Amino acid sequence: MTYAPSQLLTFEAFLAQYRDEPAFELADGELIDMEPTGPHEAVAGKVASRLNLAIDRMSTDWLIPRTCILRPFSDQATARRPDVTVLDESALRDEPLWEREPVITQSTSVKLVVEVVSTNWETDYARKVEEYALMGIPEYWIVDFRGLGGVAFIGRPKQPTFTVCQLVNEDYVKSTFRLGQEIVSPAFPDLALKLNDVMPL
Q1: Is the pTM of this model over 0.85?
Q2: Residue 148 falls inside a structural domain
Q3: Domain Putative restriction endonuclease, which positions (predicted)?
């Protein structure tokens, strides 16, 4: 991930210029080029496929949009594009921007967000944990398929790790899973998934 040298942007300016460019996010007005790799996109695609199958089995109104932007704070120029977002379609009628833009501002619309870790692991394990918790998103997955995260987050020895963050009160309670372990998800209690299932070939 690199930081694009530019002047600070408002949220509205970001939408006007970068709404259709999924490689860019905005953090406190600063444009961020996330530069996803092929393996990163393969992992995100496999996670989305597994979740779509689980959603079909659950017979809910949940969906995974092709693209959407999360606006965690109405008073800050921050726009996040999780690698996978699970939305409650029935709640989208209360989203003020949804009819015009794929922008989510309310926690009630979001069931789960997933970030696949790249070189910007600090953002996924720290800043986004805080932002998503403050937004009230009930569950956040961090898929660290290369074991890039700091040892404070994934332990030692560093290895591929799947972290499930469940919102309890205002903070996330984290559970970590390694290769070969069945992932436990409060949002998807019948999900049959292991980190092995989403690793790139």
Answers
A1: yes
A2: yes
A3: 11-195
